[in-house]
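Subject: for your reference before the review

Hello V.,

The reviewers asked for a structural picture of the protein, and I figured it would be easier to keep everything in one thread rather than splitting it across files. Below is the amino acid sequence we used in the manuscript, unchanged from the supplementary table.
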Amino acid sequence: MSININRRDFIGMTGSTLSLNMTCNQFPLTQITIPSQELFQNLHDWVKKTPFVDTHEHLPPETERIANKTDKDKIPAPDIGILFSHYADSDLQVAGLSNEDYKKLTSWDLSPKDKWKLIAPYYERCRNTGYLLCVRESVKALYGEDDIREDNCEKISQQIQDPIQSGFYRRILR
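And here is what came back from the structure prediction:
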């Protein structure tokens, strides 16, 4: 009898099974066996019920985010530049964005439209990399836009700024 299982369930099940075996320290790694159907089902059900494992986010503490909402000495500015301030910046720089222009992108000195004009040619070259796909998915999930463009960069920037208030992380991350 074959069991259909998707990639996420398989990885979760495998990780949980290995963790249990290693944590319990009852079975050396060379003696790990395939779990019984009952154990498999119990672990599978448990993993499916787990609401949160790891997001690997790099968010500043919410109190810091709120305190620095208008502090122009802090970078990145709360606009589209922040979307390119961690990991995604590497893709833009490999595509040709200079370090000087990257600093402008995260600064408070340019408008969102000027920032977009600065990165548009580089963004087009690398918009399908893993990091920029994540940026696009975030823009879609958080702001209802399928991509960042000149015609929506100001709207997205406003949507980045507006919810800088207590409770935003709690609402979004749940």
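For the response letter, the relevant points are probably these. The chain has a mean pLDDT of 84. The chain has nine helices and no strands.

Happy to draft the paragraph if you're swamped.

O.
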